[in-house]
Amino acid sequence: MQALTVLGSTGSIGVSTLDVVARHPLRYSVFALTGHSRLKELVSQCQQFKPRYVVVTSTQSADWLKTRVPVETQVLSGSEGLAAVAGDDQVDVVMAAIVGAAGLEPTLAAVRAGKKVLLANKEALVMAGGLFMAAVRDSGATLLPIDSEHNAIFQCLPESFVCGATNANLNANRQVKAKNSALGIDILGVRKLLLSGSGGPFRTTPLDELSSVTPDQACAHPNWTMGRKISVDSATMMNKGLELIEACWLFDVNEAHVEIIIHPQSIVHSLVEYADGSVLAQLGNPDMRTPIAHGLAWPERIESGVAMLDLAAAGTLSFEPPDISRFPCLGLARAAVRDSGDAPAALNAANEIAVEAFLEGRIAFTRIADVVDVVMQGWSTSEPESLGAVQDADIRARALAREFAFGPKNQ
Ligand code: NAD
Ligand code: MG
After folding, report:
1. Could you give the residue range(s) of every CATH 1.10.1740.10 domain in the chain?
2. Is the distance from the beta carbon of residue 11 to the nearest atom of ligand 1 less than 6 Å?
3. How does pLDDT run across 185-218, given as a tens digit for each residue?
4. What's the CA dihedral at 311, 315, 320, 324 to 10 degrees?
5. Closest atom of ligand 1 to CA, residue 147
């Protein structure tokens, strides 16, 4: 029986996680659930899973919850509450499914406590990849990618691959002499990673119509049902840009070894190219319960509730290169990962502000990339030595993004 904390249990990934967990009551018990809004759903989750703790962001929410959750569930609040349930001695597995920068601290708390961490919150790695991966190595935490593309790549890599192992460890494990190469995993015979992405709802929309698309249109993803922030990121393809950065950290490669390929059907979730010309892919219906079940049970396999893939019914699987003029965020993300240091944190922060402004109807869809671009143009990159330095970069980039999006007096 493994004890599980779900950070962000009321979100799209959180709900899918609990759906898989409910199918395996003898394997998993829920230790803690956390949420920011949708408090009624959080109460229902507590009634169903009877966790030891539930954590909310504010003390007002905590007071509201106290009279409504089962007696065995204790209510905590704030960042201390989140860190406590992420790192508690009794927890075996932590699903990191809070959206955005807010997920960084609790996810790091789980990593530092050496947990098995199922990482959906890609923004944590984008912001603080260096510190994050160093913490994984130091604590011996087991890091498993849940983002479908990274989970697919992980499944296509040899079993000996470990996220966060240094090249030296890999070499020692495999008793292969270290080679002087840009690509850490090339000793496993890997030449390239191919990240697939659907191209989102506007892949074929005439370019001159993009400035007038609405938030609801942007959130209507053709294949996946997700939270609103990541849905907008998919429409701009900033999501693929963030995933590029995420892949560089998880798999210890540089950006030149990660190719982005558009695959509108979202059946092939990503691919790994090997030195001998083999390309391995992971396929499945687009349903996050597959990578979630993979992470939960790894290295075993369990039932996830996802319908089996019917390839004949799926019909044609097509691929095309991304159009950078349609998706300028891809170029911005590549530039940020090349700059390294705190540039990806600034990119992520500017993007969060721009997406929020678009969802509130305050800026046009096409201005999202403009806001990020202006922040990055003026950004002078430095190497963050601490979490505080990352958070400082995040705050500065948010302020710059707000200023550009709304004007200095209207933030
Ligand atoms: P969502 O918006 O549906 O849910 C987010 C969760 O985080 C909710 O439980 C919410 O209450 C909580 N939350 C929001 N703001 C918070 C704050 N300030 N403090 C604490 N908790 C807060 O998002 P989602 O689609 O489930 O995505 C979650 C993460 O997983 C994101 O990082 C996303 O990029 C990643 N991801 C999602 C999918 C998907 O299919 N939804 C796929 C791959 C990766
Ligand atoms: Mg993804």
Report:
1. 340-411
2. yes
3. 777 899 999 999 999 999 999 999 999 999 999 9
4. -90
5. 43
Coil, strand or helix at 358: helix
Number of Cβ within 10 Å of residue 108's Cβ equals 24
Bridge partners of residue 116, in order along the sequence = 93, 142
C-alpha torsion 302→92→174→108, nearest 10: 120
Which of 59, 77, 98 most suits a substitution to test ligand 1, by most atoms within 8 Å of the C-beta?
98
Asked if CATH classification 1.10.1740.10 holds for the domain at 340-411, the reply, yes or no, is: yes
Whether ligand 1 lies within 6 angstroms of the CB of 98 is answered as yes
pLDDT of the residue at 181: 39
Across residues 217-244, what is the average pLDDT?
94
Pick from 6, 7, 13, 290 the residue to mutate for probing ligand 1's pocket: most ligand atoms within 8 Å of its CB. Answer: 13
Q: Using alpha carbons only, give the angle 125, 288, 202 rounded to the nearest 5 degrees.
A: 80
Q: List beta partners, residue 274.
A: 190
Could you read off the pLDDT of 17-30 as tens digits, one per residue?
Answer: 999 999 999 999 99
The per-residue pLDDT for range 172-193, each reduced to its tens digit, is: 444 333 333 344 577 789 999 9
Cα torsion 118, 245, 37, 86 to 10°: value is 40
What CATH topology corresponds to 2-145?
A: Rossmann fold (3.40.50)
Residues contacting 31, CB < 8 A, separation 6+: 3, 4, 5, 51, 52, 53, 85, 88, 90, 91
The pairs formed by 303-309 with CB atoms below 8 angstroms and a separation of 24 or more are: 303/23, 303/24, 304/20, 304/23, 305/19, 305/20, 305/23, 309/267, 309/283, 309/284, 309/285
Measured distance CA(148)–CA(174) in Å, rounded:
27
What pLDDT was estimated at residue 39?
A: 98
Q: Tell whether ligand 1 has an atom less than 6 A from the beta carbon of residue 230.
A: yes
Show contacts of 203-206: CB within 8 Å, 24+ apart: 203/262, 203/264, 203/326
* pLDDT class of 237 with cuts at 50, 70, 90: very high
Please list the residue range(s) of the chain that carry CATH number 3.40.50.720.
2-145
